[in-house]
Every structure is written in C-alpha cells, then in structure tokens.
Amino acid sequence: MTKSLTHKLLLVNGANLNLLGKREPDIYGHTTLVDIETRLVAYAAEHDIELICIQSNHEGKLIDEIQHYGLLADTSAQVDAMIINPAAFTHTSVALRDALLATQKPFIEVHLSNVHAREAFRHHSYLSDVAVGVICGLGHLGYQMALTYWLNNLYSVNLNN
Ligand code: DQA
User: How many helices (H) and strands (E) does the chain have?
Assistant: First the structure.
C-alpha cells in the first residue's frame, strides 16, 4: 500500500503546459512537464511531503481541482499551500483568482518565461497581488525554488542539507 503523507502541497499548471518541451522551446525550454513533476515529487517526498500535481487546459477544471484540494471536508487531507503556473489564465481569469482566495491557502505564482519582458498583455496578472511571491523568467528552476520556499517556510526544512 502507498504510504499516505501527512503534509501535502499542490502544483497546478494551466493551459498548454502539457506541451512543455515541444512548445516554443526557445521561450519555455526543453524540459517536459513530466520531467518537472517527477523531480519535484521526488524532492518533496525526500522530506515526507506529498506533492500533488495537476494540469489542465480548461479553466473550470483547474478551479474544480483547486476547490477540491483546498477545501476537502477532512481538513487534514487538504493541501497546506500551492504552487501555480496558470499560464494564459494568469492574464484573464478572475475566476481562478477567486478560487485560490476561497481556499485561503497561500500560493506562489510561477512563470517559466519573464512575462514582463514579453508582450504588454502578459504584464498583468490577476494573481500576483494575492500571491505570497512570484517567480518568473527562471525556467523550470522557478518551480524548484517555489517548492524549496514552502519546504523551508512551512515545514522548517533546512536548506543547507
Ligand atoms: C507562462 C507565461 C504566460 O504568459 C503564457 O501564456 C504561458 C506560460 C510562463 O510560464 O512563462 O502559457 O505562464
């Protein structure tokens, strides 16, 4: 039987991020989402944290999943915090913002590319002002840094180890 870990984090990836590795690699890199998730899940598990990974191209599906993991009736099964790359929904979705706020779970917003160095429509985020922090432009390492932050700040994992 798989061991159920007490502490849980949620990694959320939005539209088109299932295509990482193939999609505009000059902007988003060559690493696939499966590679990113596999590495992060293993890193979290080393510290007895379960990292639950979801990706969807559908805004409503992301909202359903965020509500689910953030508001489970059994509060001990809820995630403690989230890491989210909402992709294009960053720039459009009040509904995603509202879902994250409804859960009252802290989250870090991650973007692979530096959205501020790109088209003007990518400069605004509906999430940034309610995020604990925003990491952008550091490629897939941005996710790793967000996870490291939660390990350190929620679970007091010593970063020097
Ligand atoms: C992105 C940036 C968004 O503007 C874009 O729509 C994405 C990916 C990033 O990770 O750099 O799909 O969130």
Answer: 5, 5
Decide if 107 contacts 132 (C-beta within 8 A).
Answer: yes
Low-confidence ranges of the chain (pLDDT < 50): 1
- Ligand 1 atom showing the smallest separation from residue 136 Cα: 11
Count of C-beta atoms within a 10 Å radius of residue 12: 25
The CB density around residue 34, as the number of other CB atoms within 10 Å, is 13
Determine which residue's CA is closest to atom 8 belonging to ligand 1.
87
pLDDT tens digits, one per residue of 68-102: 999 988 888 899 999 999 999 999 999 999 999 99
Question: How far is CA 144 from its chain centroid?
Answer: 10
Instruction: For tokens 């970063």, name the residue.
Output: 159
| C-alpha to C-alpha distance for 21 and 38, rounded to whole angstroms | 14
Ligand 1 near 122 CB (within 6 A) = yes
CA 136 / ligand 1 centre spacing (Å): 9
The rounded distance, in Å, linking the Cα atoms of 56 and 69 is 15
Answer yes or no: are the C-beta atoms of 103 and 70 closer than 8 Å: yes
